[in-house]
Fold this sequence. Notes:
Blueprint: E1 7-9, H1 12-17, E2 25-27, E3 51-56, H2 65-78, E4 83-88, H3 94-100, H4 102-106, E5 110-113, H5 120-124, E6 128-131, H6 144-151, E7 156-159, H7 164-167, E8 174-177, H8 182-194, H9 196-213, H10 216-235
Parallel strand pairs: 1-2, 3-4, 3-6, 4-5, 6-7, 7-8
Helix pairs in contact: 2-8, 6-9
Amino acid sequence: MRCADLVVANSRAGLRAWSVWPEKGRVVYNAFDDRRIGTHASESRGREGRLTAVMAARMAPPKDYQSILSAARILEQDTPGAWRFVLVGNGPDRARLMESAADLIAAGSVTFADGGLEAVGEIRAADVGMLVTDPAVLAEGCSNSLLEYMACGLPVVCTDSGGCGELVRDGREGCLVPPRDAGALARRLDMLRTQPQMRARMGAAGKRRVAKDFTIDRMVAEYVTLYEEAISHRAR
């Protein structure tokens, strides 16, 4: 990076994390290809009378699945039968997490799903999208999971760290919660459960935001501009 003419990251948080000088740093956000949505069946939300919250992510230390399981226990105790948590993905922590969640799986509150190469089907069937991470291990940049949730019209609850706040504006496309705070996560989820109009408003706002600001055409055009700028630097 020291020898480069320009350094590109997919979030402002990424540039800050690597202490890239503003004169050299550029941001090109990730994009969502909306053709992916059309390949899946129509959504079936509210299955079994439960509100469904999904998290699609690798089951590895940066993702704070333990806070999700703790929040699920809080909500199952306060409002039995009201929630269904769908955890989509694989990784080194999957077996341990399933063992830890045995009681919640038995109660029907938590389901572990293997999304394979495409998780959009599980996402479209959910009511809320979650991205809960541990910034002490690794903070998010421009999360593809967040873009997927928003493109599918889901309100988002995510950890307030890294680049999450650059995609999800608190109170607009979703809610930001402090890291490793299962109580705050449970409260935000329950707020969305009891306020369907807020869920619909946030979901629609996220869908509009992705369609406007996170398109493939936009990303390609910004990279072309970046390459042209780098060539100009080298020519000088």
